[in-house]
Design brief:
Blueprint (H helix, E strand, L loop, with lengths): L1 H8 L2 E5 L4 E2 L8 H17 L3 E7 L6 E2 L2 E11 L5 H4 L5 E12 L8 H20 L3 E5 L3 H9 L3 E3 L2 E8 H10 L2
The structure holds coenzyme A (COA).
Coenzyme A (COA) binds next to strand 6, helix 4 and helix 5.
Amino acid sequence: MPQKRLKALCVRKIEPLAKFHDRDGFDCGSEPLNIFLQQTARQHTTRGISRTFVLVEEEASEPKPILGFFSLNLCQIKSESLSVEEAKKLPRDVSGVRLGRLAVAKNLHRQGLGKILLVAAMKKFMEIFHTAGGIGLFVDAKDQKAKDFYEHFGFKSLPSNELELFLPVATIQEALTHGA
Ligand SMILES: CC(C)(COP(=O)(O)OP(=O)(O)OC[C@H]1O[C@@H](n2cnc3c(N)ncnc32)[C@H](O)[C@@H]1OP(=O)(O)O)[C@@H](O)C(=O)NCCC(=O)NCCS
């Protein structure tokens, strides 16, 4: 029985950021990302600017510790900012989804949680894709390390800015079907 309870504690889930999450206790090692989660994310949700989702232990008591988070917003881009290959047959203005932020608590780095969050973001993208379209996921990597992380999953830099990366819908579908 105690073993069963221990197992239940380890079940993780992604849920929309809410009041009962421990935003102040979250530290990913990047102050701007911590501050976004603590001070801005809920306001953005209320105003429809972006949506933030958190990874938590299902059975955690409130305030629930946040293991990691990501936020998404809709975006419009000029197809000319994509590579020639990607821009082919697209109209001048296209829409997509921006993965504005993604971070894992710093004591949990390199344990697969970043991948869990990224796959969850891809699934959210597919929900939007099936409802309103969108050519793929865009992300602004904050530095070379973050860029390496996204490249590991197939994101490619835009020709105009190597810290802005793009993952087209076909690659997302492929990753979700055959494993990221
Ligand atoms: C970037 C970050 C989200 C990665 O999260 P993580 O939980 O440590 O990553 P994971 O353990 O899930 O790693 C998943 C895969 O990515 C690889 N990876 C992780 N960090 C990497 C990096 N910096 N460069 C290249 N590959 C990386 C892992 O080796 C792993 O590969 P595998 O699936 O083949 O085994 C985390 O380091 C973080 O929160 N950093 C601070 C905030 C930040 O920089 N966010 C980026 C937003 S711009």
